[in-house]
Amino acid sequence: MSRQTVGSGTGWEAHVGYSRAVAVDGQVHVAGTTPVDDDGEVIGDGPYEQTKAALDIVEGALGEAGAEIADVVRTRMYVTDIDDYEAVGRAHGEVFDEVRPAATMVEVSRLVDEDFCVEVEATAVVPD
């Protein structure tokens, strides 16, 4: 079994014990990704902007693990207000318009930072 981990360099990874992404045997699993820049600041004022930022981070992690957006087969979106589904869905649709992964969006009571309105997970399968 081959295994590669991708880190973002944040202190949270070591503290909590996780990786931004893990590639194993042709699959890449990207951890829950929030819209945070390298300085720990929230990117985006609303659900659309935050979703686009989170998906940009997901795309970067996929790239480091040898995958790309076209390889994504599954996404999960956690939102703090399900009424934001249109804005979150629009951002997701702009990134995955041709890919059309299996996708889930659920409302959660809160995320780790009260300013976050979305968190995104992704799974990709890399062709041989």
TrEMBL record:
Residues making up the signal peptide according to the UniProt record: none
InterPro entries: RutC-like_sf, YjgF/YER057c/UK114
CDD domains: YjgF_YER057c_UK114_like_6
UniProt cross-references to PANTHER family, sorted A to Z: BLR7761 PROTEIN, YJGH FAMILY PROTEIN
Protein name: RidA family protein
Organism the protein comes from: Halosimplex litoreum
Species classification: Archaea, Methanobacteriati, Methanobacteriota, Stenosarchaea group, Halobacteria
